[in-house]
């Protein structure tokens, strides 16, 4: 037989209401009473009926996280932090993949799972502000990423333009003058690439260096194969670049492979900077200099914003004060791919 709340109350010599208050974390319970209840819970191995609790509260205890690609290391690492932060609020996380397809993203914000989840954290690639404005579902929602700014929903992002500028300025500060950029994208889903290209161009302009389209290599995706192919194309041109800013660490890992195969020294001949600070870059040879978004902060802020919406009843929109757009922090991690072996190992 499953131990009930009444069993705990009887053993502790208190009312079922008092046991409920202890289980739900209410502070106005005498310390001695709380201690007796907790001892009874441990003795009987009592576990609250979460399904019944959810029904009473009108909540499921589940939130959804939707990202473009689950096998992209940045999203995998971010998801780990989001799951940990959600656990602080007692939420289980349902993870979904959109592949950056607009119709798929529209379905996700359209309420297909509104009876299953308490809230949604979404990193869109294809949605428009119009898509969000037309949304009728009331499920609380927080957006991540660069696709939509100043939209009708709470949003957590880093300043990608400033971060890309800092990455490029780091290379300029090392005396590099022919700095290539790998990862440009002109497709509608390529907002991340566009803002990082803007930061790259700003750094060049501020340093008085010309913007040379021959040094900017577009890629279909941010993956290793694209980075490797782009670097091979750059090495076949004359003059070669003396530095490369990659719009993701995964691109940079492909770049490092091509440079090694061609016998090009990093950073002596070509310095390399990535973006995202994935764990693989801390153990590549050489270790990868990169822009490091504070993933833990992004996760914490996103989950807290979602919780605020859930607590106040949730409308699927921001509160009366308007949507909050919060910029998380980032740092430049300078490692061996720009500083050489004296620049240190994984950190």
Task: Explain the overall architecture.
With 347 residues, the chain is an alpha/beta fold. It folds into 3 domains: 5-48, 434 Repressor (Amino-terminal Domain) (Orthogonal Bundle), CATH 1.10.260; 61-157 and 295-316, 3-Layer(aba) Sandwich (Rossmann fold); 160-292 and 332-343, 3-Layer(aba) Sandwich (Rossmann fold). Helix content is 43%, strand content 16%. The strands form 2 sheets. It has a 6-stranded parallel beta sheet with strand order 2-1-3-4-5-11, with helices on both faces. The chain is elongated, with a radius of gyration of 25 Å. The mean pLDDT is 91.
Summarize the structure.
This protein is α/β, with parallel strands linked by helices.
- Biggest sheet strand order reads 2-1-3-4-5-11
Helix and strand run: HHHHEHEHEHEEHEHEHEHEHEHEEH
CA-based shape: elongated
Q: Strand fraction band?
A: 15-25%
CATH superfamily of the largest domain: Response regulator
Rounded average pLDDT: 91
Distance between the termini: 52 Å
* SS class: alpha/beta
Number of domains: 3
| Count of runs of 4 or more consecutive helical residues | 14
CATH topology of the largest domain: Rossmann fold
Specify Rg, calculated over alpha carbons: 25 Å
Q: List low-confidence stretches.
A: none
CATH top level class name of the largest domain: Alpha Beta
Beta-strand segment tally: 12
Q: Give the proportion of residues in helices.
A: 40-55%
CATH structural architecture of the largest domain: 3-Layer(aba) Sandwich
